[in-house]
Protein: Transcription elongation factor GreA
Organism: Teichococcus wenyumeiae
Amino acid sequence: MQKFPMTAEGHARLEEELRQLKAEERPAVIRAIAEARAHGDLSENAEYHAARERQSFIEGRIAELETIVPASEIIDVSKFSGDQVKFGAYVTIVDDETEEEKSYRIVGAYEADMKNGSVSMSSPLAKALLGKSVGDTVEVPAPGGARAYEITAVRFR
């Protein structure tokens, strides 16, 4: 069975999402479908079709999470230290061209969320950073051409 590396925080978020989908979302959409059915002709009932679409999404996400959560390999990053980028590290980088500073956390694929500053360890950025240390410069392939970044900080919490 394939294992999915994950931080404890990411695993807890996925477990909570699964719990919420099963305990709250699923029953709510079943009620919405029943209510929409009561309105009559289903072929022209937009509420019914929207509820069925939502149900399909919820059931698909539940199935996905029921595969991922039990197969998660929780990695205790609190035992990590040093200035070398590893799984779970918070990395601060500076764009060599724009001097813009950004911070990211290297996490598993199923917990990555770029909006919240976490990138999958399989992303081009993380692949370039893994194994490097403070002061190193990495080149990351991008659609507009390769970008160079200098690693200015590596932290573990």
The first strand starts at residue 4 and ends at 6. The chain has a mean pLDDT of 93. The first helix runs from residue 8 to 37. The CA atoms of residues 16 and 22 lie 10 Å apart.
